[in-house]
Amino acid sequence: MFSEANNIWEWFSGIWFAPATLLSFDYEFPILLYGIPAVPLLFFLRWLLFFRFRQKIEIAFFEGEVKRSWGSLLRFVPDIIQALSLMLILFALARPQRTNEQIEQYTEGIDIMLVLDLSESMRIEDFKPNRLEASKEVARKFIAGRFQDRIGIVVFAGDAFSLSPLTTDYKLLDTYLSEIDFGLISKPGTAIGSALGVATNRMRESKARSKVMILISDGENTAGNIDPITAAELAKAYGIKIYSIAVGKEGAVPVGTDAFGNTVYEENTLDETTLRKIASIGEGQFFRASNNKALDEIFNKINTYEKAEIKETRFKDTRDFYHIYLTWAIVFFLLWLATKNTFMSNALED
């Protein structure tokens, strides 16, 4: 299908009358299209009136001398050509066109660092299947809901390291999340301060409009070489907002099964004080999640709080095609002028 008529000969291609071509158009004045089927109806009504009121000459012929000739049908050719010309004029006036619209979406973006606890207490099964897997799942959903935001991952137990730098490659981040396991860090403990320090180091040179850190942990700081409060103050100095999430229940929590398949419970305590203080210093918010649903809702809230405004730029390229059909209309009109006073228009019609 032609996207445009580049020269006079392409105007006369039959493809412009193909159903697929006609249906592909948008019409500036579509109401005029309803006038097209009315044209042949008007010509038919004119013929009926002419047949009813025309003057007639009575001529008698002997039976058998009057014979019908197919050539007499040629007298309808000028009317057909004129009707086609009028129909094409109406089609051209409806202004067929095609619009190519492109939409570009962009945003200033937010840099987000997920800081995930891998300590042994994250094996506890008060979340399904356990605290770590539940955290990974909501983090995966969170990443999938972002648009052009750079996201990185820091993991920690007795030590902390950057698993992924800030990136917009969300498929790569999903792969990293799938590979996160307790075996990544062999050193026991919970080095919250070190984790905040590593995350801050990854974000300190960021030029993003907003920098956010999401800390997920279930315990108090028991390892590392930097105090969590000091690390939080350092992050604030670099303009990083911190959300802290405490995962886990207080009291007896399931930690696995014994040799007989029975669930084993242990007493669990959760130190919220440090995590609350970190969020306060980071001018973010502290959350407490006691089950999978609560954790999912917390991430939904953070997703809402830290939503960058998505801007759209629309480009419209509208191309008119009325001139092609108007050219056809002129051609048929000239043909009508050439034929209306020839042998095809016989004044002595039967």
UniProtKB/TrEMBL annotation:
Coiled coil: none annotated. Residues 111-302 form the VWFA domain. InterPro entries: UPF0353/GerABKA_families, vWA_BatA_type, VWF_A, vWFA_dom_sf. Keywords: Cell membrane, Membrane, Transmembrane, Transmembrane helix. Pfam families: VWA (PF00092). The chain crosses the membrane at residues 31-51, 321-338. Signal peptide: none annotated. This is Ca-activated chloride channel family protein. The lineage of its organism: Bacteria, Pseudomonadati, Bacteroidota, Cytophagia, Cytophagales.
